[in-house]
Structure formats: C-alpha cells, structure tokens
Specification:
Length: 305
Amino acid sequence: MEEVRVLSPVLLLLGNGLFGTVPHLLHIRLGIKERYPRYTSGLVLFSGGVLIGLVLLQLLPDAVRRLSSLNIDFPIGEALLCLGFLFLFFIQESLRALCMWRQRRFTEGSPAEVTPFAVGGGSAGNGSGYGSIGASTPGGDSQFLHAPVAFAYPVFFGETLVLLGLTIHIMMEGMALAIQNTPHEAWVSFSQVAMISYLSFFVISTLLYTSDLHVTQGLTVGVIFSLLVALSAIVGLATRTAQGAVSHAILDSLVSGGLLYVVFFGVLQRSRHLLIPGLAQFALTSAGTLTVAIVKLAVPIVPIP
C-alpha cells in the first residue's frame, strides 16, 4: 500500500495537469479558437458527449447503488437528478434576468422593447441569446448577423458550480482509495478514479478554454481543481477514511442533473448556430459518450462504497 500512498496523488496531479492544459496549449501555440472555430465547436460537442457518458454511466448508477442501501421504495437518485437540473435552470435564468434588467438601465428604448428576459421580446437569432449580433440596414430595418471569427462558449456562475461539483465527486472517489484492503484492489480503484478524473478535467479545461475567460484565468481554475483532487487522495490515504455513502450519492445525483442542464441548454443549444451539419454534431456528441463507455469497459471494476 505504500506505493499507492506515494504514487496515486502524484499521478492524479500530473495526469489532471496534462489533460487540463492541452486545450490551453493548443490556444497558446496555434490559436485554435480564433483560426478554427468549427474545430473548437466540435471539441465542445465532444466534451458534451463525455458529460452525458459520465452522467449515465458513472454518476447516476453509483448514486442509485449507494441510495439503494436506504431501502426506501422511491427513486431518490432520479428525483435528486431532476432537482439538480431545475435548480441550475433557476440559477441561470435568474442571473440572466438580473443581467438584462441591469442592462435596461443603460439601454435606450421603451420597456416594451427591452425586458429583463430578452431584447425585443425574443432571443438573439439562434434561440439561445448567443452567437448573433444585431445590425441596422440603410433602410432602417434591423437584422441579425451570425457572429464572425471565433466560437466562444459562455461559462456562467451556475455552470462553474456544477464543474466544481464534478471536481468534488472526483475528490470523494480519491479519498475512497484508502478503504481498499489489498494493493491490487487499491491500484484497480485508482485506475477507475484516474481515468474518470482525466476525462473530466479535459472537459472542464475545454469548457473554460472555449469560454470568454482569459487563458490565465482558465489555467488557474484548472490548476486549483487539479490540486484539490490530489490533496483529497492524500487526505484519504492518510486518514484511511472515506466520505459517507449517502452524502456522496446525494452529491452525485445533484451534479448529474446540473451536468445534463449544461449539456442540453449549454453545449448543444449554443453550438447549433455554427455551420456544422446536424449529423456531424450528433456524431461528435456520440463519440464523447462512447469514449466514456470504452473507458468503463477497459478498466476493471472494484465497487467503491
């Protein structure tokens, strides 16, 4: 077990750091986001598929398994998933309404034209409020123009909370390394945690990189999340205790609902205005989900309480 104690935090830190900095290095060296917006959008769609796979194949099944020990004849995990979805929806729309209300104070126009929820009583061209800008023609009519140049995925406060929740899930899994009985079980458990952690940090880094955040800010957030996961593994291995199963399951269920909101109302909706065929978007999203399935099949399973 001594090898696990020493190497697992180091490997988690190095692996998360590597997968978390790849998108930013592509930007620094090649300027991918500005030069190849379709590639950037495809990377975000792939990340959305990975999030779907993490929810359906990792988070929700683990939460249901842990909550089944309560012997309650009610789908608690699924109910908490719906609650997490609705809660993040409420946070996002409340913040959006607040921002639009504050913007109204600095916008010329009648209250009928500018509301707390939309401009002109509708969305900005693509149904999501992003990716298009208004312009006036010489005749006085207004029209919407597609956003040029780069693709930017807007990361909001609520979505950052969900990504932090996913990080906390990985932290709890890292702490559970300490409760394995043999070195073999510990290494197998570590391989499970590491693969999911690496995929998750690639997704988190991609969403931060393709957002409007500065590269330094995105790298800082990624480094902090990576350090938290490594420290959780150190704490778990040092204390030889893991987080309670019920609290872990509740967190997983809530994070699952939030991630589904991020995928459907964030990644998919905000990517549809780009000139990428629908079948290509479906293929990229499916490839992300299939990647998680392959990882789950390739890595041996040791149940983590």
